[in-house]
Every structure is written in C-alpha cells, then in structure tokens.
Design a protein that fits this description.
The complex is a heterotrimer of chains A (305), B (307) and C (245). Helices cover 76% and strands 2% of the residues of chain A. A two-stranded antiparallel sheet of chain A has the order 1-2. Chain C has 245 residues and is an alpha/beta fold. In chain C, strand 9 and strand 10 form a beta hairpin. The chains are: A mainly alpha (305), B mainly alpha (307), C alpha/beta (245). Chains in contact: A-B, B-C.
Chain lengths: 305, 307, 245
C-alpha cells in the first residue's frame, strides 16, 4: 500500500464525489424548493448517458455527442416535469415516491426496448484518453481529471448563480415562500420547470461523463441514486454546500473503503476473514456513516430547515 | 355487508384448490399462493404505512431477511420449519428494531431515503455473501419441514399460506383498533396534537415497525419456499416499491386493501408479461396514472368508511 | 403553580421573548394580552414545550420543567389548546376526547381490546363532551364540526388529560358572538377547578375571566396587574392605541 496508491484512490474518490454532487445538487434543489421527492432522477442520469452515447455514435463527434446528450436530458426532464411532475407538487411524499417509481420502470424498460439490455459501448476521443504524470511514479487517467475539473467548475457556477444572480434569488425566494413569490408576479410554474430541467441537465451531465467509466445499461441510474440519497441525508436537504461536502465525503469514504478496507482488516484479523468481511463491510460503509451522522445531526450537516 | 363480502372471499379462496384441480390449471394455484404471500407482506406494510403514516421504502428488506434465514438454515441442514420460522421472525424483528431506532427519529423525506438506503445496504450484503450464491442466488436446499405439514404438497402449502394470511389480517385489525393502534393512528393524523396530550409517538412507532418487520419476515420465509430459490432480489428496493403499490392500490388502512392490491398488481403483471417481455414499459405509466387519478384505491369501492 | 423567570428566545435577530418574568398562582386565571406580533404564541410554545427557550427557567408545581419535552409536561398536568385548531380530523368528537383520556391513563401498550369499546375511555370522554356542550355531537367526525364546535373540542381535549394548569391559546378565535358567550360561560365554570393561562384578543372575555392580566409587547411584559389597574394603565393604553379596552 503505497502513497501513490492512496493518492490515486483519493483522486478516484473525489471524482466519484464530484459526480455524486452533480446528481445531488439537482435533487436537493428540487427537494428543498419544490418539496418534491423525485426517485426518477436516476432515470435522467441514464437518459443523459444513453442519448450522449447514441449521439456520439451517430455523429461521430464527441463534443456534438455531449451537447446533444445534455440537450436531450434537458428536454426529457422538462417534458417529464410538465406531464408527470406538475400534479405531484401538491401531493404528499408518498404519492410522489410512487409516481416517480412508476417513471423509473417506464424509462428503464424504454431504454431496453430501444437499445437492448446489454451495456452500450462508449468511446473516448483521443485527447481525453491517456494518462498524466501527477506525481513521480503515478500515472492518472486524463479523463478522470477532466471529470473532477468539470464538476468543480459546475459547483462554482452553481454557487454563483444561486448566490449572485436574479434567477438564484428567485430560486431561494421560491424555496422559502412559494405563494408569496407567485403573488409578486413571478411565474412560479416556469420557475419550477426551469429548476427541474436544470437538475435534469446536471444529472444528464453526470450520466454522460459516467458512461466511459461505469457501464451504460438499464438500471444504471438506481445504483447511483441510493448513494445520492445518502449524500443528501448527510449534507442536508436544500443545501448545495451540503450536497458538495456530503458528496465528497461519500465519494472518498466509499472509494477508499472499497480499496483499502480489506487489506487493512487483513492486518488486524485473519486474511481469510478479511476476504469475506472486507467487501461486505466496505459496501456498508457509507450507510453506517449516514446512520452516525443522523444520530448526531438528524437534519443533516448543513440543513437550513 | 362487509362481513358478507369477507365470508364469500374466504370461501372462494378455500375452494380454489378444488376448482383449480378440477380444471387442471395448477398454475393458478401457484399464482394465488404468490398473491397471498405478498398480501401478508402488504398487510405488514399497511400497518406502518397506511395506519401509521411511516413511508418506509425499505420493507423488502424483511422479505429478504426471512428468506435468507430459511435459506441459510436449510443450507446448513437445519430444515425444521418451526425453528426456521422462529429465526426468520427473530432476525427480522431485530434488524427492524435497529433500523427503526435510527430512522424513526427522522421524518418526512429523510425517513423515506434512510429506509431506502438501509435496504440497499442489506441488498449489497446479500450480494457479497458468496457462499450463498452472491448476486445470482442459489436454490433452496430443502423446503421447510413442519412435521405434519408438507410444504412440498402444493395444496397443503396453499392452505398453510391461506391460514397465515387470514391470521395476519385478523391480528393486524385487532392491533389497529386497540389502544396501541389508536396511538399509531393518532400520531399519523396529528403528531403535534398527540404530543400535546402527553404521548410520545416514538416508542409506539418503533414497536409497530418491529411488528411489521417480523410479519414481513414470515412472508419472506414463505416466499423462499414458494420460489424454491434464494436471491438478493428479494430485498431489492424495486420490490419495496411493488409492495407499497399493493398497499396503495388496494386502499391504505383497510382490512381487505392489501389483499386486493396484491391480487391486482400481481395479476396485472402476470397478464402484461404474457403479452410482452417489456411489460414494465406499460406497468410504469399505469402506476403513475393510478397514483395521480385514483387515490382511494380498490378497497374504497367496497367500503364507505373513511379510514 | 407556575413560575417563569427570565424567559428569552430569539429567532435570528428577532427577540420574540425578552426576559419574561411570569407566574400563576394556584386556582388563578392569568390572562396574557398584547398586540399582534408581541410574541404570545412563542411564549405559549415555550411553556408547553414545543419551543426550547434560549435562556430562563420554567418551574411548574415546584419542578423545573425547562428541559422537559412536551409530552412529559402534559403528563405532569400542563395541558394546552391550540390557537389554530389542531384536532384529529378523521376521528369522531368522542374518539378525539377518548384519545386524550387514553393518553393520561398510563401507557398504551395494549394490543388486543378495541379502544373504542373500552368503557374506561368512553365514559369519561362522554362526560367531558357533555360538560363542554358537545354532548349531542359525539358521533360526528371532527372535520364535520362547525368551527366553534371544533374550538370547544380543543378545550375538551385539554380537559380530558385532567390538567392542573390549562394553557388556552385564543380559545375563542374565529367564533361568533353567541358562541363566544357560551365559551366564556364555560371557561368561567372551569375557574374553580383549574389554574388557567388565557391568551386572548377578545377583551370582553379577558376582563370577565381574568384574576390578573399580563401585557406582552415586543416580547416583554410591560405590566402585570389586576384587570382594573390594567384598564387604567397609561403604558398599556399607548401600546394598544386604537384597541377597545
């Protein structure tokens, strides 16, 4: 277990964290502002991945593929919002959960119908392939660094928009008092559609970036969605800062845990026991972390409720 | 009126094996048994969801725990059904107590996400258990042996499930009308009022959660005998969603609702899957429509009392 | 009966309660009045246990209850009615009160016998409903009661827990003249058996029922005195400029 390995796994953790943040940001905004639980957020992630991959194969161009994928996710997100999500704002969480659950079934199967159940092959353009020497002896994939860069750029942009622009002010105002903002003449419906669509685009972005690393297949959204929930619970609903901190924590803990728990356990208890218990415990790590955070701060670390 | 409806329903279920054998359609016996096993799971969820207002998206976990308890014991040669059932109930209750202790202190959205997360945690645990098949699962070594009852005999198994389901419904109905049940229902109706009259809902909710978990474990033990195959899919969160749908579809907080919902959903799934392997693309929107437009569920048609 | 010292609570920059000193003697009806926004509901919330004060102490019947959560205070005999009606809408009036009776009848870990048929709960509930004037409406779902009847139900539920001190938060809110009169008469009948803290805007009720009145303005008690003296108090008059006293 060398420092190089630890460093690389740390970076991997940050990369996972950044992707979790992209998902969590949209979801926590929707949850905090519109008080809507959206289980189908993972489906939007999946749609982004599929549309981008398909567009890339169709046009042969990576940038075009990315653009189309993002646009597609945005359009699908808004379409979903207008048709299915609108009636749910006034309903209780149970109805929202069930309706969006139905959406998941629909999208997963739709993707399987169009593209089949096998994972899609995604390719990277030459300039994103290859490795880079960050530290002597370490050769880290360029692509993963690119993801980290994009994610942090989005985080900065998001902070700027929410804290410094009129739109951000409307969003924050809509969060604390929906009827008042509507009474002031702001088109709340449009605002909600924009927020939802924006969240969908972020999820789509995460999805299309994830494609080359994880597999593009039906149900890919749900695998990451649960981790996103853990992020939101830890970070606190409605807080983008919480989403970032929570995402980085979850990403790093999960990645490092999976990489190092088994060997570390192996030094404490017998290697054979570690072989069995290691992976199991590693997969449970973030949930245990969530339980601990909840015991201490039931509303999450940065909750403003 | 309701008693009469129940009488006919039970009668129909009781004679179903005879009818099915006469028509030589054993498949429907399987289907009916599957419906009733899931009805038990739905009844247990209705207790905490319909009556208690606790939106637990992790109820499938207890199906899995019950199933794995039986499966693991059978793997090691312990096939005594009574013992297996005891362990299934005990393990489910214990884990429900642990999860509930952490989760019930939260509310609203957090509760939903936490129960979901814990269930997924158990799912991953199940996948990592390689000696029990990992994520492929494994065949059940032997069916539970209850001595005088032979679960290998389809008809006997059917009646065992029927009796257990009726018992589950009856016990739950007594529970929700008792003082304990009234507290749970009051806490759902108006939590701050409940605290103001001097009752802290937490211990009651926790106990209800544990009872529901234990009952889910029973359903799981039965399910693994039914499918003769043990798989972590028992605990997948989409299974939780299915059970929730059964509760909602049938009508929350009602005696017949869970059974009606289980029957409706499983029959619809059965019919749809015979048309196309992509039946979920139809079921998904159906579920969405039913949530948006049909709030009271099926049992609302038969009962006029607003639960 | 109740002794409050230096109770303070701030919400950010807003001092909702600012060093309140307040006490209630046994058997007394102590009214709290003040203009809107004075912090009356925040005050009641801290007394009932729904809000945690930033500083100060609350001593009830000799026991410091400042850190005690709401359900435990209710069991010690501190009952409240809510300003915004908070009842069990799906249950009948009788079931509402029976629940309150059940709440103070020890623990509710009983799983078999139907609560609705339990005479130990029904009898007292029926009696209380009759006392409050809702005897004929026992079987009506609470959601179908008129607003005034729902306010009566609020008080009935507070009474069902056999309290030593009643916290009544605007019991007459939204009631018409005739209903208010009936409620005032009923509350007058309670005076002998309970200590009462009455928050109200209806000055008629306040002056008829109160033994003492405290005036709350901007989170501070500016006067505590007999109704007569309060009526003539200059500062109070200024605070209530335009209000009939």
């Amino acid at each position: 277990m060398t420092t190089i390995l630890v460093f690389e796994q740390l970076l991997n953790g940050v990369q996972l964290g950044v992707m979790l943040f992209l998902m969590a940001a949209g979801l926590t905004l929707v949850l905090g502002i519109m008080n809507l639980v959206n289980l189908a957020h993972g489906a939007l992630y999946m749609v982004g991945a599929y549309l981008a991959t398909a567009a890339m194969q169709w046009t042969g161009s990576y940038p075009l593929g990315v653009a189309l994928g993002l646009a597609g996710a945005l359009v699908v997100g808004m379409a979903v919002e207008v048709t299915t999500i609108r009636p749910l704002y006034s309903r209780d969480h149970l109805d929202q959960v069930l309706a969006t659950f139905g959406l998941i079934l629909f999208f997963n199967e739709l993707v399987a119908i169009v593209w089949g159940r096998a994972s899609l092959y995604t390719s990277l353009p030459g300039w994103l392939q290859g490795h880079v020497k960050l530290l002597p002896g370490s050769s880290y994939p360029v692509y993963r660094l690119a993801i980290i860069a994009v994610g942090l750029a989005v985080a900065a942009t998001l902070w700027y928009v929410v804290a410094r622009t009129r739109l951000g002010m409307l969003i924050r105002a809509g969060a604390s008092n929906r009827t008042m903002v509507a009474a002031l003449g702001v088109n709340i419906r449009l605002l909600y559609t924009v927020v939802f669509g924006f969240g969908a685009a972020l999820a789509g972005l995460a999805g299309l970036m994830a494609g080359p690393i994880y597999s593009v297949q039906p149900g890919m959204g749900e695998l990451i969605l649960i981790q996103v929930f853990v992020v939101i619970v830890i970070g606190g609903i409605g807080s983008i800062r919480g989403a970032l901190v929570g995402a980085l924590i979850v990403g790093i803990v999960d990645t490092m845990g999976r990489a190092f728990l088994k060997p570390v356990l192996g030094t404490l208890i017998s290697p054979t026991a570690a072989e069995a218990a290691g992976p199991a415990l590693a997969s449970m790590l973030i949930y245990l972390l969530m339980a601990v955070v909840l015991a201490v701060k039931p509303a999450g670390l940065f909750s403003n409720r | 009126m309701r008693r009469l409806a129940w009488f006919f329903c039970v009668l129909a279920l009781a004679v179903l094996p005879a009818v099915v054998t006469a028509l030589d359609q054993p498949y429907y016996l399987e289907l009916a048994r599957r419906v009733m096993i899931f009805a038990i799971a739905a009844v247990s969820l209705d207790l905490i969801l319909g009556y208690g207002g606790m939106v637990s998206f992790g109820h499938a976990a207890y199906l899995g725990i019950g199933g794995y308890a039986v499966g693991i014991l059978a793997f090691y040669g312990v096939t005594n059904g009574w013992l297996q059932l005891g362990v299934a109930i005990g393990a489910s209750a214990l884990i429900a107590a642990a999860i509930g202790a952490v989760s019930i202190r939260t509310s609203g959205v957090y509760f939903i996400m936490i129960t979901l997360a814990f269930t997924q945690m158990l799912y991953y645990l199940g996948i990592s258990l390689d000696q029990f098949g990992g994520d492929d699962g494994m065949r059940l070594k032997a069916k539970s042996d209850f001595g005088f009852l032979d679960l290998g005999n389809p008809v006997q198994f059917y009646y065992v499930v029927l009796v257990l389901m009726l018992a589950a419904i009856y016990l739950t109905q007594r529970l929700v009308n008792s003082r304990f049940g009234m507290v749970i229902r009051a806490a759902k109706s108006n939590e701050s009022r409940t605290r103001a009259i001097g009752v802290s809902p937490y211990p009651y909710r926790l106990l209800a959660f544990v009872i529901a978990g234990a009952m889910g474990g029973v359903a799981g033990a039965l399910l693994v005998n039914q499918t003769a195959y043990l798989t972590p899919d028992f605990m997948h969160w989409t299974r939780s969603g299915e059970i929730m749908f059964m509760v909602i579809l049938g009508g929350m907080a009602s005696a017949a609702g869970p059974l009606a919902g289980a029957a409706a959903l499983l029959v619809v799934e059965d019919v749809l899957s015979s048309w196309t392997q992509h039946w979920q693309v139809i079921l998904g929107p159906l579920l969405v429509i039913s949530v948006i437009f049909f709030r009271r569920g099926l049992a609302g048609i038969f009962s006029r009392h607003d639960a | 009966m109740l002794e409050v010292r230096g109770l303070s609570k701030s919400f950010g920059a807003l001092r909702a309660s600012d060093g309140i000193d307040f006490d209630v003697r046994e058997g007394e009806t102590h009214a709290v009045i003040g203009p809107n926004g004075a912090g009356k509901t925040t005050f009641i919330g801290q007394l009932a246990g729904n809000l945690r004060p930033d500083s100060g102490s609350i001593v009830f019947a000799g026991e410091d209850i400042t850190a005690l959560p709401a359900p435990r205070r209710a069991r010690r005999g501190l009952a409240r009615s809510f300003q915004i009606t908070s009842i069990y809408k799906e249950f009948t009036a009788l079931e509402n009160v029976a629940l309150a009776v059940q709440a103070c009848a020890g623990h509710s870990f009983r799983f078999w016998r139907p609560a609705f048929r339990d005479e130990a709960l029904r009898r007292p509930a029926e009696q209380i409903l009759a006392d409050v004037g809702l005897g004929g409406r026992a079987a009506v779902p609470a959601a179908n009661l008129s607003h005034g009847e729902q306010r009566q139900l609020e008080v009935a539920m507070a009474l069902a827990t056999r309290p030593r001190l009643l916290l009544l938060d605007e019991p007459m809110a939204g009631m018409g003249a005739e209903e208010s009169q009936r409620m005032i008469e009923f509350l007058a009948s309670l005076k002998k058996r309970h200590s009462i803290i009455l928050v109200e805007h209806d000055m008629d009720a306040v002056f008829r029922l109160a033994d003492r009145i405290s005036v709350l303005v901007y989170g501070r008690v500016i006067a505590t005195d007999s109704p007569e003296n309060i009526r003539n108090n200059e500062e109070v008059r200024r605070a209530y400029l335009g209000e009939a006293a």
